[in-house]
């Protein structure tokens, strides 16, 4: 509602306030506020180094990985409940607002992707490879200018889902514990969720739980990106919706195909596709039926599309607040 029983703003009003602050000051806040996903990633990396041994049996690796995720989830829930308890006391709602600002990283991710465009435009491929390195799991030194631009457009779609829609969804549904559980699993998936020999079993629980938690947010993110298309120049909502129906399930990830397919269809691009990892060609399906030769200008269009979609998300939260207040 608009206000809590203790005089502070209610959860949905806090969420709207946090979304506005993130949009305006997210770059600066990213440098001073702790990132729960980053903390979870370091926790999982430490556990991985200590507990994930190749000589362990398959079952032992799965069990150990599951215990790491269970510990992480319990810590996240306990921290979320503590924040909510503090929030119920006097001006403690400010602590809850800070927790929201820690979990929402939409503007920070948007700025990092914009830096890829600027690096390509000002310096070419090598600076672009350096700028995209932290935003993709691909082997960046095998990417040309078009590959870097495609990876940046995909990163914009992923960031809209994972750094904005999913934390908003988690908080709106389950409060601060829901927000912290999502951000914890975002970090766990980044640390342990990649397929391969090392994490295939130890990271299976992290990858599965991440997929479960992101199932609805990813689809909502894809729909919002499609609905945002008419506001962006030559972007097309119809093409985005067609790509969602045709290509969303072609992505290796259970969920990431939804925002990426919407982005590809809206902008008339083909994303994903085969790519090199060192000397090995990784075969992945193309998503979207447009051109694969993405450019820095397409990164700008992707950022504009995600910004409009973020405004639609704010409108959705405001509509939910209005509905709750009217009950």
From TrEMBL:
Keyword Membrane, does the record have it? yes
GO MF annotation list: ABC-type vitamin B12 transporter activity; threonine-phosphate decarboxylase activity
Where it sits in the cell: the answer is: Cell membrane
Q: GO:BP terms for this protein?
A: cobalamin biosynthetic process
For this protein, the parts annotated as crossing the membrane are 12-29, 62-86, 92-110, 164-185, 220-241, 253-271, 303-325
On the tree of life, the source organism's domain of life is Bacteria
| Swiss-Prot/TrEMBL keywords | Cell membrane, Cobalamin biosynthesis, Membrane, Transmembrane, Transmembrane helix
Q: In which pathway does it act?
A: Cofactor biosynthesis; adenosylcobalamin biosynthesis
Membrane-topology descriptor:
Multi-pass membrane protein
Entry GO CC: plasma membrane
Q: Which is a Pfam family this sequence falls into?
A: CobD_Cbib
**Known function:** Converts cobyric acid to cobinamide by the addition of aminopropanol on the F carboxylic group.
The family classification in the record reads:
Belongs to the CobD/CbiB family.
- According to UniProt, the name of this protein is Cobalamin biosynthesis protein CobD
Question: Whose protein is this, by species?
Answer: Azospirillum oryzae
Its organism's taxonomic lineage begins at:
Bacteria, Pseudomonadati, Pseudomonadota, Alphaproteobacteria, Rhodospirillales
């Amino acid at each position: 509602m608009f206000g809590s029983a203790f005089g502070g703003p209610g959860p949905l009003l806090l969420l709207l306030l946090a979304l506005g602050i993130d949009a305006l000051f997210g770059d600066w806040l990213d440098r001073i506020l702790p990132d729960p996903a980053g903390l979870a990633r370091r926790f999982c990396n430490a556990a991985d180094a200590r507990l994930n041994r190749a000589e362990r049996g398959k079952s032992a690796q799965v069990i150990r990985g599951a215990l790491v995720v269970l510990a992480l989830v319990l810590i996240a829930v306990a921290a979320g409940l503590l924040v909510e308890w503090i929030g119920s006391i006097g001006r403690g709602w400010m602590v809850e607002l800070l927790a929201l600002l820690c979990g929402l990283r939409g503007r920070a991710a948007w700025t990092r992707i914009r830096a890829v465009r600027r690096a390509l435009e000002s310096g070419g491929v090598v600076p672009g490879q350096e700028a995209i390195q932290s935003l993709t799991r691909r082997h960046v030194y095998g990417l040309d200018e078009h590959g870097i631009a495609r990876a940046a457009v995909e990163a914009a779609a992923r960031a809209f889902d994972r750094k904005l829609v999913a934390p908003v969804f988690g908080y709106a549904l389950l409060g601060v514990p829901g927000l912290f559980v999502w951000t914890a699993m975002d970090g766990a998936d980044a640390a342990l969720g990649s397929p391969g020999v090392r994490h295939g079993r130890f990271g299976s629980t992290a990858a599965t739980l991440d997929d479960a938690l992101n199932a609805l947010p990813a689809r909502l993110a894809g729909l919002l990106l499609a609905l945002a298309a008419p506001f962006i120049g030559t972007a097309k909502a119809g093409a985005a919706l067609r790509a969602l129906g045709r290509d969303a399930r072609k992505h290796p990830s259970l969920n990431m195909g939804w925002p990426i397919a919407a982005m590809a269809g809206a902008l008339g691009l083909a994303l994903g596709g085969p790519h090199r990892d060192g000397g090995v060609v990784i075969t992945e399906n193309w998503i979207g039926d447009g051109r694969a030769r993405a450019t820095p200008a397409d990164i700008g269009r992707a950022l504009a599309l995600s910004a409009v979609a973020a405004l639609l998300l704010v409108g959705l939260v405001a509509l939910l607040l209005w509905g709750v207040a009217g009950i």
